[in-house]
Amino acid sequence: MVSPSQKPPVCNNMAAPGRHVGHYIQRNSRFLIHNFEQLWGHRSFGWTPALRQQVAEANEESTGTIVIPRKKTWSKEAVLEALASTVSRDPTAYSYQFQDDPYLSPRTSSEFKLYSLSQESGRSAAKFFVNSNSKFFTKDFAEPHIPCLMPETVSLLLEEQSEEALKERINLRKVTAAVDMYDQLLQAGTAVSMETTHELLDLICLYCDRDPVQEGEPQPEDMEESGEEVKKRKGRFRRASDFLRFTWRENNNAERIFNLLPERDTRCYSALIRGMVKHGAYAKAFSMYTDMLNNRMTADVHIFNALMSAAPDVRDKYNERWDLIAELLNQMSQQKVQPNLLTFNSVLKALRRCGSLAKTQALHTLNEMKAVGIAPSLASFDHILAVFSKAGGFVSSPASSGQGNTDILQEVMSELAGTSFTCQDPNDVLFFSSAMRICLDNKDLELGYKVHSLVEQGENWRLLGDPYQQSIYYGRFFNLLCMMEHIDVVLKWYRRLIPSLYYPNPQGLRDLLQALDTDSRLDLLPTIWKDIRTLGHDNKSDLVEELLTLMARDRHGPEVQEAFAVCALDVKSVFDGDRGRHSLEWSTSALSHITSLLLRANKSQQAWEMLQLFKTKNRVPEEGLLEDFLSMYHSAGSSQRAVELVQLSASFCLSATPRLAKRTLAEFNLTEEQRAVLSELESTEEPSD
Amino acid sequence: MVLGSTPVSGTNVILELTAGTLCCNIGDKCQRGRTLQEEIMYRLLFRTVYTARNSSVSVYESCVLPAKCNKATAPVSRVANGGGIKALSTSSVRFCEKKNDDTPSNQDQKTNADKEADPTETPTLVTQKAEDASNVINMVEQREEEPVLLKTDDGSTTQQQVDVKIEQVVATPQQGKTDAAKSGKESLLDLLGAMKVEVTNKRKLKNLKVKPSYESTPKSKPAAMESTISMFQKATVEASSQSETLDPELVAAASAAASTLPDRSQAESELLRQLRQHEGVTEAQKKGDMNNLGVIIADMKVGKNPNRQNARPANQIRFDEDGRGYTHDRGITAELDSVRRRKNLFSGKRLNVFSPTTDEDGVESAVARPTLWDMDYANQLSLSTNQTPRNGLEEMIQWTKEGKMWQYPINNEAGLEEETSVPFHEHILLGKHLEEGFPRQGPVRHFMELVVAGMSRNPYLTVQQKQDHISWFRDYFHQKEEVLKEADVYLN
């Protein structure tokens, strides 16, 4: 039963299950299940000593020599990681971060945003409070000591003039205080060590000579200038400090200190150039670089990376841009600076702005990466995709650009399939959504599935980025599914993705409705309507209208009609409900759709009430609708209602009134009185028509 | 796949193509009925395929492989192209139809046969014939067996020969239905691609409201098609005349001989080339291009020619019915593309700027202390990724990383924070601490050895505590030196 190929650790090593689990989960969950089965299989018979021995012997025979395995060091999370890998996602549950409080389960994307942000801000508020009142939080309950639970020092302790005080200010990232201290030290004639000077320059250049917004601190006044930008991007979950853009000022403290330095080394130049590029002083960065070369110094890789990303901004023509980049690369190799991933990523990113040149050069760059032995990250591929889609768009027709796009994406996907990534570049998170955009643009379902299976690989889902990016990605994927896939499969995905991963927008739901329509599964509309209500899209008039139109368009079986009627009443209650400025306006089509749905389900009373609503909302019913009413009353034999209907029609001043009256006179058994009323209506309306 | 075929097949393609489009134009009513039937057949075929398709691996890909070996032979690809026409005429109409399951599948295949055969016939005749022909698939098979048809089909503009052909079909019914159907659809896709059928989006079409689009779409197509057709026809003339010079029996023999060889398609094309060259010598004045063609045929390799029929069309097809047709196309192209582009992404030229790295550089940078820039970069990375835990265990991992949580033991040294750097012998071999300040022998020494032996087995004290313990005794005995001396016990 036990074959020689089966490894003995499975039976006699306690750690084996965990290791196997941890190992396999990285690759494939299916393997995991398989492996578990295997393990259990062994467990059941593998514990008897005799069997164990047999296995050991078999193993010895097969190997001959004893190979001592290398010591495996485990990270402290290894056990937890193995355990966590056994838990798969529950598509029916809300995101884990909201499971503390069921009341706060987000049902819509805005609620999601609100709750997750408030959770985050609550944490930072607590942290701010603890840090700023550290004297009240001195008791250390934890044994052993847990540093991160104790208040951090955020205020300056050292007051005297010394290099120590300067270092403290640098560590606390107090830019202005650090600059002041440095100036005082210089005036006092104290020499500051080179290392501290480097750190100071780094600090000033990184924050562009301004105090950074400390985490949890109230934001300073100068935030206002970026207010508009904040509003523009309010869909995003970014911290405000992220898109604060300060511009590099002429002769700021960094430059001043730099010029005062008795000797400058590469690190100083590096700080300055990186700061200039980061804060938009591109031309200055290049002149600084020239200055450095004139002083016969070699640059480091960071300088080149920064310059490379700035290259498109200092040249106007595409070929000049590329020439500049190529020159920089050559200088790099002349100065024996080894490139890193960021070097190539900034080259590729710059190539996005190099027009038609980019296509060939991007591929060359990719090959260079391979030759140098640097694995491209997702950001590299994202840039390449962008290069190919853009260049195609300019040069040839849209059709062929789409073609090139899928081609290149196809290649990239075959390259990446089955790999799991860690984030190496902030732009990595853009890859998946742009890849899915290409799939969507080209209606390539096959490729879309490939991209999604890559997302599901390992921890790759983390690279979907922030919730905003994530919703874009899933939105595109769902859109593609609705467009191309069979409705059963679409619904399968629908249940898997919504709402645990993705809150669809009205457009997404409309796509779903169209998919239902295409595959004639309109009977599912009432359930979709429930979801629409839950997702908070029941106040989007065009979506509701579309739903009603689809329901009212064709006649269905009695059960379906019954369900539709119930759904229509529910829709009506949404219209009636007062929800402030978000409430819906009755339109003629909505009214008549609901009415006809009710009529088809023989809910004459409710339908009649709907007819009254026309009047109160100043809408005019269509003639066909009234005809339907008449037919129904005819089959029900209620002549009184028929007469009332004609009167109602007259009160709307409908041109069809005489016809209706005539029909009523002809088809119904009427009393004399009713006859009189009707014939009057029939005659009076005629002339005015 | 079409590429692998001889020019002979090319001629047939054209002829059949014209036939198909003519049918499109002339017999409008008849056509509609037919397309309906065809649509049904496609539904059925799709349905059989559909179960496998869910796994996103198109069945076509698997189908392609067996089909490929036959591909290069002229007859098959011709038939396949016949299928292409059919789809061409139907694809625009197909989506209009809803499912009709109960119609037998082979009916529409009959109609397909007509279309290939006779552009000149009236629609009624066509249907008549269709009933005669038992099954187009059979015909496919039969043609493969008997290349005689090479000839007859070329003359298919004349009605007589058409009749002959169909009789043959009836006479020799064969099996192998599925195989032929597959190959037919494959080149359907190729052909469609070559025609640049207009992109149709499902949603747009849907908005047209199904029924009316019936008439509008087919009308718009022929104009575009005819241009391609005329282009093909030019090429056809030479090729067809050339193929007629071959004795059909010879061709049959050649293909039979070729089928015994492993690489059947190539062998056959080579044999045929040989035959044609012989004949070409005698009729050299008429066919000056004969040798050229022979060379071309000999040079052709399956899947090698990237332009025209293979590479471009495959991806350009955007016909749509309920999304399925498109994805099938994708399946084939995916395979073809993967063949093509394996070399592509990482095989081109490189910039040739850098030389491969040595390990030293990496070590050097790792040693350097992280700068503020590095920290900022790490912060950016962590902000850009999604760091929220998905379950309780992941949250515990996060807490462990932050140092908020007790660590799960991963070995038997858990909890040894203070002592991690202390090697075990410091704990066990404590004798060296007795070297100083203690007598070499005597009761004190004996006592201390016992103390040390006891402590060396005590895992609960740190090394520092053990040393302190020993030095406490050292001090103690020094203080009691007087007493010890009185008792005749000496420290040194």
Automatic annotation (TrEMBL), chain A:
<dbReference type="InterPro" id="IPR037387">
    <property type="entry name" value="PTCD3"/>
</dbReference>
<comment type="similarity">
    <text>Belongs to the mitochondrion-specific ribosomal protein mS39 family.</text>
</comment>
<keyword id="KW-0687">Ribonucleoprotein</keyword>
<dbReference type="Pfam" id="PF13812">
    <property type="entry name" value="PPR_3"/>
</dbReference>
<keyword id="KW-0496">Mitochondrion</keyword>
<keyword id="KW-0810">Translation regulation</keyword>
<keyword id="KW-0809">Transit peptide</keyword>
<dbReference type="GO" id="GO:0032543">
    <property type="term" value="P:mitochondrial translation"/>
</dbReference>
<dbReference type="GO" id="GO:0005739">
    <property type="term" value="C:mitochondrion"/>
</dbReference>
<dbReference type="Pfam" id="PF22330">
    <property type="entry name" value="Rib_mS39_PPR"/>
</dbReference>
<keyword id="KW-0694">RNA-binding</keyword>
<keyword id="KW-0689">Ribosomal protein</keyword>
<protein>
    <recommendedName>
        <fullName>Small ribosomal subunit protein mS39</fullName>
    </recommendedName>
</protein>
<keyword id="KW-0699">rRNA-binding</keyword>
<dbReference type="GO" id="GO:0006417">
    <property type="term" value="P:regulation of translation"/>
</dbReference>
<dbReference type="GO" id="GO:0019843">
    <property type="term" value="F:rRNA binding"/>
</dbReference>
<dbReference type="InterPro" id="IPR055063">
    <property type="entry name" value="Rib_mS39_PPR"/>
</dbReference>
<keyword id="KW-0677">Repeat</keyword>
<dbReference type="InterPro" id="IPR002885">
    <property type="entry name" value="PPR_rpt"/>
</dbReference>
<dbReference type="GO" id="GO:0043024">
    <property type="term" value="F:ribosomal small subunit binding"/>
</dbReference>
<feature type="repeat" description="PPR">
    <location>
        <begin position="340"/>
        <end position="376"/>
    </location>
</feature>
<dbReference type="GO" id="GO:1990904">
    <property type="term" value="C:ribonucleoprotein complex"/>
</dbReference>
<dbReference type="InterPro" id="IPR011990">
    <property type="entry name" value="TPR-like_helical_dom_sf"/>
</dbReference>
<dbReference type="GO" id="GO:0005840">
    <property type="term" value="C:ribosome"/>
</dbReference>
<feature type="repeat" description="PPR">
    <location>
        <begin position="265"/>
        <end position="299"/>
    </location>
</feature>
